Amino acid sequence: MKLKHFIYKNNALFAILIDILIVSFSFLVFAWYKPATFRVILPKYSDPFIAFLIIWVVVSFIMGKYNMLSFKKSSHMIISLSI
Fold it and tell me: What are phi and psi of 29, to 5 degrees?
């Protein structure tokens, strides 16, 4: 019950964490398809990816993507986070 209460109280933080996980997972999946992922791609692109992730979250926050009170249904929230 405490986890559900924490998510309800901090729903914007929870949405930001889910969004970061989705973007990071997609980066790792596409990096995995290339040869030498751990030796070349991750060291070379980790800093630009962190910068991209910060810009992604800031712009999403400014545009109201994490405003959970604006969603009438949970399916609208899921669609918004997946885009």
Answer: -65, -45
* Separation CA 20–CA 41 (nearest Å): 19
Q: What digits encode the pLDDT tens for the residues 2-23?
A: 666 665 566 778 888 888 999 9
Residue 28: CB atoms within 10 Å: 13
Average pLDDT over every residue of 21-37: 86
Amino acid at residue number 1: M
The torsion defined by the Cα of 62, 65, 69 and 70, in degrees rounded to 10, comes to: 100
Residue from 20, 45, 24 nearest 34 by CA: 45
User: Taking the chain, what is the end-to-end CA distance rounded to the nearest angstrom?
Assistant: 30
